[in-house]
Each structure stands twice: as C-alpha cells, then as structure tokens.
Amino acid sequence: SGFETETEFTVHALQLCMPIGEVQTRYIERPDGSESKLNTWGDGVRILATIVRLVKQERPLLFFTILAVLFAAIGILLGIPVISVLYAHR
Known about the structure:
Layout: H1 3-15, H2 40-58, H3 60-88
Helix pairs in contact: 1-2, 2-3
C-alpha cells in the first residue's frame, strides 16, 4: 500500500538482474497550508517490516540464522549474571 510495493519491486528487479536507475521528474511545490501524507516513522517501520518479510521468504536460512544468533546472544547476556552469582556463592 505504498512504499512497501516500491521495496518489493526493487528486490524483484535485483533478482532478475534488471537495470535500476533514476528518472528526472518535474517537482511542483506543495500548496500553502496543505499537509504531507507521509509519516517518517510509520512509513519507515512498514518498509523495514517488508524487507524483513522478503528476507524471510527469499533467504530463509539467512533469516533464521540471524534470528538464532540474536536469541543466543540475548540468552548468553542474560545468563552471565546468573552464572557469576552461582560461582560467587560456591
């Protein structure tokens, strides 16, 4: 529904080795008093979620390896204080 489509088009164009380029367009200033419909944080989160979803679909081994390493690192970091207390009271 917007930028997500652009992200998917870019990924699929890269997969098909299609050329990607920029096209010059005419820019017209926004009329005074009008507001942009863009939402920096909301749109950015949706684009990031689309990238994560595409990586999960197209490269599942990479996706789940990164996820496993992340959870292992969190587990080790949370376990360090417990192990240090265990060895301190021996």
